[in-house]
Amino acid sequence: MTLELGWEEWIALPALGLPAIKAKVDTGAKTSALHAFSVEPFGPSSKPKVRFGVHPIPERPDFEVYCSADVLDRRDVTSSNGETERRWTIETKIQFGEESWPILLTLSDRGGMAYHMLLGRQALEAFPGGAPTVVPTESHRQPELSYDAYDKLINRAPQKRALRIAVLTKEPKIYSSRRLIEAGEARGHVVEPIDTSRCYMLINAEKPEVHYDGKALPSYDAVIPRIGSSITAYGTAVVRQFETTGAYCINRSDAILASRDKLYAHQILARDGIGMPVTAFASSPKDTDSLIKLMGTPPIILKLLESTQGKGVVLAETKKAAESVISAFRNLKADFLVQQFVKEANGEDIRCLVIGGKVVASMKRTAAPGEFRSNLHQGGTAQLVKISKEEREVALKAAKSLGLGFAGVDLLRSETGPKVLEVNSSPGLEGIEASSKKDVADLVFQHIERRAASAIKRRRRVGSAA
Description:
Elements: E1 4-6, E2 8-13, E3 18-25, E4 33-35, E5 37-42, E6 49-54, E7 63-78, E8 84-96, E9 99-108, E10 117-119, H1 121-125, E11 133-135, H2 149-154, E12 164-168, H3 175-186, E13 190-194, E14 200-202, E15 209-212, E16 215-216, E17 222-225, H4 232-244, E18 248-249, H5 253-260, H6 262-271, E19 279-280, H7 288-294, E20 300-308, E21 311-316, H8 319-331, E22 336-340, E23 348-355, E24 358-366, E25 381-384, H9 389-402, E26 406-414, E27 417-424, H10 430-436, H11 440-451, E28 455-457
Parallel strand pairs: 1-11, 3-10, 4-9, 12-13, 12-17, 17-18
Antiparallel strand pairs: 2-3, 4-10, 5-6, 6-7, 7-8, 7-28, 8-9, 14-15, 15-16, 19-22, 20-21, 20-22, 23-24, 23-26, 24-25, 26-27
């Protein structure tokens, strides 16, 4: 089948998420070239990939599309003016109307050129029907496309591609971190664990960077923060820095901070009308009696503001015991909450795992004999549970109120309906995967793939990373 082309044509590179781009057809050039910036290799040396940005519309440098592809080669290419440049080479399908075939494509900075795509004779000769006839006096012999295609691109699911993803964790070998890495790699992504405490930051207007081990980290499509409570302040500063580089963070820094500050989290939940155990907070020792009276008849719960995994949570059976614990906390200069004890919960709570605005799994946790805390780290056990529509709605509303894309929402079943006990921004995966039999780690990456969109429409700072 004969294919006729003009000296300029509209083409599509569907595998790269580029539905429309103008190309100059140049039979005098051997290789084809695509304008690319922020070109960065990633992945294992046995199967390297490359990530890069494209300005498909020459007149719109603010509009960027990010792509990734397997690397075929890195070769020297000599331009028509005699300059030699080493370029990454990839293979992808080119499409003219109904016709498409794979071509080799080199990545080069063509930002100052009228055409951000050059189609050389090597690509033309690869056409299955024989090299197309090029009519040098005509243009657009094939169906014309439009840059309007990118308006639709913004509003639809991004092109499936290999993503470069960082997992911020001090413990890459624990179950949750390991499962995230395994699940991401199984879906074709490159997932890199990074010790949050060893990151340091270059903060400037031109090119904000995160540094690690003596060099700047590359651009990431997405970041999964697994920030330990011991480094909340520094860890969220690192997440905030990744946000400035344009990476999609499944949990943003402000949401993590809000979830870790139990007083602030409860204030947000109360503001949004979300049920929780009656909670009180005071600073002055003179208000101890009044604080306890607000809870009614003991027992009551006393909880450090930054407690985690059930640590720093105390059950006071009597008023005198509550006074003693409060006195001890004050002597330690520790901030704490006083909270109503929901007796009818019987040492059980419900953990709802929320990913991207959906409850994807749930489990019932039961405290060990003689223990009131149901946390698995405190010896509790977990089993599959079916939650009610009301419980599902409360869990979703709580995660949304705190701005978390990935959260463990803990609920108590009380006589007056579900009460939010806590919202965890770094939920563990082991218990929920074992009890629900669901591949929760895989669901995390499905969400990231939907959100780490390839097209980003924004004003690009000079020299900023992708």
